[in-house]
Specification:
The protein is an alpha/beta fold. The protein contains 13 helices and eleven strands.
Amino acid sequence: MPSSVSSIHIRRAASLTIGWGNLLNLVEALLEPLVMVFSLWSVAAFREGEITPPYLILSLIVFSLTFPGSARLKLTVWQSVRNIVFGWIGIAALLLFFGYASRYIKQFDPEVLITWAWAAPVSLVAGHLFFRVAAPYILHLQSPPKRVVIVGMNEQGIALAERIAGDRYANMILLGFFDDRAPERLAKHSEYNLLGRFADLSSYAKEERVHVIYMSLPMTTQPRILRLLDDLRDTTASIYFVPDLFVTDLIQGRMDMVCGMPVVAVCESPFMGTNGLVKRVSDVVLSLLILILISPVLLFIAIAVKLTSPGPVIFKQRRYGLEGEEIIVYKFRSMTVTEDGGSIRQAQKNDQRVTPLGAFLRKSSLDELPQFFNVLQGRMSIVGPRPHAVAHNEMYRKLIKGYMVRHKVKPGITGWAQVNGMRGETETLEKMKARIDFDLDYLRNWSVRLDLYIILKTVLVVFKDQNAY
């Protein structure tokens, strides 16, 4: 019998989530880019009688911006439609800006662009709805449902079973569990079939033609795992390990290789490699554009702050940035004080320290505008977890588990928490915990589209939010 796990060849899943079939993934990756391209070609051909070179170039740009398409099947129909519309608004705004900046927009018929502006999102929504209906048939075309068993009726095994049951596109049939513990110890999970003990697994897999076996066992039971793997050599089942960290709250969890050794990322920044470059380029381009557009507003506010109350125009405060390093953040001064010590009181409703002009600046978030210079300096990002004062960080990192994980990325001028009602004072620990939950959710699910959605929603939130003072 082999003496170590390394001598056994085990197939490892590419990620810690349940994957769909390759065909379904391929269709979903191509659906959105192709729908946008074909909608453009259709409008151009209908209006001009042919697809001229400018439209071919534009379609190539659109395909590059949208490939691969977003995975939306697990979202509700409303969530999918909303994301499609906001995503299209972001892409259209980007194309319009660069079209005017490069003057290339003159190559296009305005009627074609206007028609495509509404035809594209309508086509995307229709294509997505059709895909939702067709997805089960696409899965069936690829292969019959996989027959699956799970070895180990423990926490991560039950979590995997629940995910399989809750995913209509998993294309799997869970036959049941194998476990050596006494049935009374497993009674709380009676809704699942207990098919037998570990010794019965090999014969059951051969007789019932099991396709996939998930090994949900603690790594401390290495001798038992090795015996099971040795027994299963006589079957055709694919074998996967479900490590204990399957139920851990992963941040950008993924498989990687270090010097030829497979490792699993448990907590990692989403801005690694190409993603980091995309994030930085978008920050620089957008912040430069915004600063050019708002420069008269910046000058007017600076003069108003100077004339209405004594003190500096710009308030500089120490905050924690990337990797928990201290940075200096700029704001227009909105108070009669410039506190930056070891104990700082958050602004509250009817706070006497806030000047009349400062109240308006804070309510409208205009006091945050100088932070676009922080973005150009590389200290901040346009979208990310909002930075808290150093004194607040030192307090909350001791009270909230996972608080410092938000510093795996640069702080942002706006963030996922702020557009979900967590803007302004966090006077209770529960509110701060809720804000941190949104920040960590942003890290898990970051995409360029999510950033664009947050930026657009921020504008709406600023005009109607009542929480900032």
